[in-house]
Amino acid sequence: YPTWKRTLTHQAREAQMKRFCKAQAIQRRLEEIEVMFWELEQQGIKLEKLLWAEDADQKMQWMNQLLYLVQKKNSLMSEESDLMITVQELKLEEQQWQLDQKLQWAMAVTHPAPLQPPALAESLKTPEDCAAEQEILVQLLEVVNKHNVLIHIQEEKRLSKL
């Protein structure tokens, strides 16, 4: 490989590893959130039992604690939603990277001689080669559109928090 191809390959591998590490960190956090949901649920059950059993003076205290648990659960649900969006973004980034690789390969297809001018190389492609390029471009466009939808969802969430 020429140096620039090795550099691009190395950068692509690094980006892929970063996505993988980020996905692992997100998975760990999602598991932590699941445990926290369970703990909050257990605390909520205990508080509800206390609400029905205790006297009127204590009920206000238990009710406040129960509301705090609900707020905490809502906060965790929001974080979980954000993490799921991030997971989708990582999947789309991986898809886009794979499609970029396919497109580079498809665009580099030349049949007889590797050192001809680009116009000649284009004319040497079969209709199947051109159709394959078009299909990859359509898939890339779909990935970009899905990514735009995720960005729009994130922006709506951000604005609703304000």
From TrEMBL:
Residues 13-162 form the BMERB domain. It is found in: Membrane. InterPro entries: bMERB_dom, F-actin_Monoox_Mical. It holds the Pfam family bMERB_dom. Its main location: membrane. Keywords: Membrane, Monooxygenase, Oxidoreductase. GO terms for molecular function: monooxygenase activity. The keyword DNA-binding does not apply. SMART domains: DUF3585. The keyword Cell inner membrane does not apply. This is MICA1 monooxygenase. The gene is Mical1_0.
